[in-house]
Design brief:
Layout: E1 10-16, H1 26-34, E2 40-44, H2 50-61, H3 66-90, E3 94-98, H4 101-111, H5 116-127, E4 134-139, H6 142-150, H7 163-179, E5 184-188, H8 193-205
Parallel strand pairs: 1-3, 1-4, 2-3, 4-5
Helix pairs in contact: 1-8, 2-3, 3-5, 4-7, 6-7
The structure holds thymidine-5'-diphosphate.
Length: 207
């Protein structure tokens, strides 16, 4: 594990319900960070490594017990941390991850009922003291998220869930943000892409 002393870079994560629009803003965030002359590693979860992407294919399309899903998320995460995140942070890069452990708290715990202490145990085991330096939470009302998904590509397993699932998800994310307010920046993503972009730029400027 990279200790705080060895860690030279910054770890930034993006979170939000499906349809909140976070992925749209990745290129601009990369551009803003690269303009500082630092290396930027843009990655995603589940995934980010060869094995992780194979696990992603299973996770997004196969039905399984929520605890199996949690364990596979953390298996992919272990690989991601060892092969991508820690080496990048140790050499001083900015790591931008499209989702990380807050997604497990929101989806597997908040929406699917896995007990939080089980996720916490895995978090401690797999991550040591590695936590994001900053998390941008793209927040939209559930109806907006569902509307956006309805006009998007073929939905995966999570994107086919109902409004009740999405409401639990949103509340779980907002709770994570309230409990970790020193890390979270909530972005009101219920507006035009240009307006959201301005908010994203303001947050990135503070990091
Ligand atoms: P997502 O990041 O939304 O990618 P895309 O934009 O390509 O659909 O998809 C990943 C899905 O995985 C998303 O529905 C949330 C889910 N997920 C979890 O349920 N738990 C986790 O810990 C992570 C990282 C993702």
């Amino acid at each position: 594990m990279v200790s705080e002393q060895v860690k030279k870079g910054k770890f930034i994560t993006l979170e939000g319900m499906d349809g909140a629009g976070k992925s749209t803003h990745i290129p601009i965030i990369v551009e803003l960070l690269e303009a500082r002359g630092v290396e930027v590693v843009s990655t995603r979860e589940p995934g980010g490594t060869l094995l992780g992407e194979q696990l992603r294919a299973l996770l997004l399309h196969e039905t399984m017990h929520p605890e199996t899903e949690t364990l596979l998320m953390f298996a992919a995460r272990r690989e991601h941390i060892a092969n991508v995140i820690e080496p990048a942070l140790a050499r001083g890069a900015y790591v931008l991850s499209d989702r990380f452990t807050d997604a497990t708290y929101a989806y597997q715990c908040g929406a699917k009922g896995v007990l939080p202490h089980k996720i916490k145990q895995l978090e401690t085991w797999v991550q040591g003291d590695l936590r994001p330096d900053a998390t941008l939470l793209f927040d939209v009302p559930v109806e907006i998220s569902l509307q956006r998904l309805a006009s998007a590509r073929e939905p995966d397993k999570f994107e086919r869930e109902n409004a009740q699932f999405f409401e639990k998800l949103r509340q779980a994310y907002l709770l994570r943000a309230a409990e970790n307010s020193h890390i979270f920046h909530i972005i009101d993503a219920n507006q035009s892409i240009d307006k959201v972009k301005v908010l994203v730029k303001e947050v990135i400027a503070t990091l």
